[in-house]
Amino acid sequence: KGSDMITVFYDGKCSLCSKEIDYYRKIAPSGIFDWQDITKSQEKLKKENITLSEGLKLLHAKDHTGQMHIGVDAFILIWKQLKRWRVLAVLVGLPIIKQFANVSYHIFANWRFKRLKHCKLAAKQDRK
User: Fold this and answer.
1) 3-state helix/strand/coil string of 13-60
2) Which end of the chain has fewer beta carbons closer than 10 Å to its terminal beta carbon, N or C?
3) DSSP 7
């Protein structure tokens, strides 16, 4: 069952992240996504050889072919499945816009990661 779905690994302890994922969850057709809150279970994340801090820092989504999409690419993968969001997926996928989106997302992701206690703890844990 899981192989034909898109697995989304997200930070459930981050209120902004949770709000966004909850919204996608509400509007997403059923049977497309497997939503994985990595703060509750890291099993599937570990199977992908992704550390908790990597998973917390950037959104990760694995498509039905097994390819991992990270950061902006993960959002594009999600948006492509959602009505009214497909246009944004196409727009953000354009080369110059995508470059800008990637830079902006990484700046935001690093800022968010440094502010959240559970992210700092995960980073410390991963360094061991």
Assistant:
1) CCHHHHHHHHHHHHHCCCCCEEEEECCCCCHHHHHCCCCHHHHHHCCE
2) C
3) E
Q: Give residue-wise pLDDT tens across range 55-88.
A: 999 999 999 999 999 999 999 999 999 999 999 9
Three-class SS string for 48-72?
CCCCHHHHHHCCEEECCCCCEEECH
pTM of the complete model: 0.93
Rounded to whole angstroms, the maximal C-alpha distance in the chain is 44
CB atoms within 10 A of CB 28: 19
Task: Using the Cα atoms of residue 127, residue 6, residue 80 and residue 78 in order, give the sign of their dihedral.
Answer: negative
Specify burial of residue 72 (Cβ count, 10 A radius: 0-12, 13-18, 19+): buried
Instruction: Say which amino acid occupies 84.
Output: R
